[in-house]
Specification:
By secondary structure, this protein is of the alpha/beta class. Helix content is 40%, strand content 17%.
Length: 339
């Protein structure tokens, strides 16, 4: 059934089909139809960051930027759902077209630019999902507004952290999107240390205020040298971060440069990023030495893909592009196939 639905969706421009799919999902959820498609998902709980996850397979940020579809997406069997990236203020993102499918490579290029309705609207949607009965793990992915200078980026992250803290099970600091100018410079050693030290101090203050500790993960790019990974790992350890998410999309184009849309600006996800993200996970794992858990993401479309991430050092994995190409049945196949 999904292949038929996908063939229809792929006739439309990528962003239009994305919006239509989410609209259909919302209608199916509201009318109760989704319950009839819910499969029996094998659950093996695992504790990471002090959180008990029902299973190791999560939804990566980006698909549900505003948290409008949390309850509906939960029927797919995810062990956790990450929403966002969300910024303090609503913003439209980059000009369209900004999302491109590359079916021959099972890949996607996007330059969305953190389009979202703002942190206040996302929190309202998270509360609506909980009121509707969602009891799963929610991660909230935070970023900076386009109009905020990189030098002042910490202010935006602190706003996001404060607003999201009470409502999230964990919070992700996204410093690795290639579609916000200057954002990846925050991965540089001094800038990263300044950012994470401020975030850690605020986390500790909020934990006292709300009498609960909400873990913080840092999401990094795949386009890193081994020396950069070593420096970042040391900074993450020094600031007592709770987790690492590896990786975001890549700027590399070698695998798709001959394909239609292969030269589009933006971040490349899907199968072409699979190997490089696994290598980055393994390199970080070597330096983090099991002191900081890793969430692996990038090109997962089969159980063997997920298993490779886990064997490289990931404790959990996330999917996004694989879900677009393989459909919701992917979650059950992953859980049945990983060791």
């Amino acid at each position: 059934m999904y292949k038929f639905f996908r063939n229809f969706l792929f006739l439309l421009p990528a962003e239009a089909s994305h919006d239509l799919a989410l609209f259909a999902l919302a209608v199916a959820n509201k009318t109760g139809l989704l319950k009839f498609f819910q499969e029996d998902i094998p659950q093996t709980s695992v504790t990471v960051m002090g959180i008990e996850f029902p299973n190791k397979i999560g939804l990566a940020a980006g698909l549900d930027k505003n948290g409008k579809h949390i309850k509906a997406l939960s029927y797919f069997g995810f062990g956790f759902i990450e929403v966002g990236t969300v910024t303090p203020l609503a913003q439209p993102g980059n000009a369209k077209p900004r999302l491109f499918r590359l079916p021959k490579a099972n890949a996607i290029i996007n330059r969305m630019g953190f389009n979202n309705h703002g942190i206040d609207q996302l929190i309202q949607n998270v509360n609506l999902a909980k009121d509707a009965g969602y009891k799963g793990v929610i991660g909230i992915n935070i970023g900076k507004n386009l109009n905020t200078n990189v030098e002042n980026a910490v202010d935006d992250y602190l706003i996001g952290l404060r607003q999201a803290y009470f409502y999230a099970d964990y919070i992700t600091v996204n410093i690795s999107s290639p579609n916000t100018p200057g954002l990846r410079s925050l991965q540089n050693s001094d800038e990263l240390d300044n950012l994470l030290s401020a975030i850690k101090a605020e986390q500790m203050s909020l934990s006292l205020e709300f009498k609960k500790y909400v873990p913080i993960a840092v999401k990094v790019a795949p386009d890193l040298t081994n020396d950069e990974i070593k420096d970042m790992a040391e900074t993450i350890l020094a600031n007592n971060m709770d987790a690492l998410i590896a990786t975001n999309t890549t700027l590399a184009r070698e695998a798709v440069e001959a394909l239609p849309h292969g030269d589009e600006a933006g971040g490349l996800s899907g199968e072409p990023v699979k190997e490089i993200s696994t290598q980055v996970i393994a390199e970080f794992h070597k330096h983090l030495k099991n002191q900081v858990p890793i969430i692996g993401v990038g090109g997962i479309a089969s159980a063997s893909d997920a298993q490779a991430k886990l064997e490289a050092g990931a404790a959990l994995v996330q999917v996004y592009s694989g879900l677009i190409y393989e459909g919701p049945g992917l979650i059950k196949r992953l859980l049945k196939g990983i060791k």
